[in-house]
Amino acid sequence: MENGSLLSSENVAIIGASDKPERFSHKAMLLLQEYGHKVFLVSPRYQEIEGQKVYSDLSEISEKIDTVTMYVSERLQKDSLQQSIINSHPKRVIFNPGTENELFERKLAELKIEPQRACTLVLLRTGQY
Predict the structure, then answer these.
(1) SS (H, E, C) 32-92
(2) Which of 29, 35, 95, 106 is least enclosed, having the fewest CB within 10 Å?
(3) Contact 16/97 with Cβ under 8 angstroms?
(4) Burial letters for 67-82: b for 16+ Cβ neighbours within 10 Å, e otherwise?
(5) What is the C-alpha to C-alpha distance for residues 42 and 45, in angstroms, rounded to an integer?
């Protein structure tokens, strides 16, 4: 693989998926796929993006999710979304710039789910993912 060998690929849920190429969630979808990760798109706005199914809620995904990457602001992180993230038992939740949520991050840490304030794109490009 041109981007270096992957130790393991992950199942990654993108919360706030978008069909707009200029949006960071869209760029993350493409880059995660390029790096060999299986991407699950989550947004109530779309049914499909670039031929890929979009789930309206994380709870609709039957496969184990390793990482959730957030692209919705704190005010859109409703209790139902937070609960569906907790119920999916990911190893970590990446809070991309602008999505930070201190209370939710603390709750995740208490539940042994790693909250990470970072940019998914930077993590991938710098080999820190």
Answers:
(1) HHHCCCEEEEECCCCCEECCEEEECCHHHCCCCCCEEEECCCHHHCCHHHHHHHHHHCCCE
(2) 106
(3) no
(4) bbbbbbeeeebeeebb
(5) 9
Q: Are 24 and 31 in contact (CB under 8 A)?
A: no
23 vs 32: CA distance, rounded Å: 14
Which tokens sit at 27?
């760029």
Q: Which helix (H) or strand (E) holds 26?
A: helix 24-34
Q: What is the chain's alpha carbon radius of gyration, rounded to the nearest angstrom?
A: 14
All domains of the chain, ordered by start, with CATH? 11-125 (3.40.50.720)
Give average pLDDT by consecutive 10-residue segment, the chain, 129 residues.
57 98 98 97 96 96 97 94 96 98 98 98 95
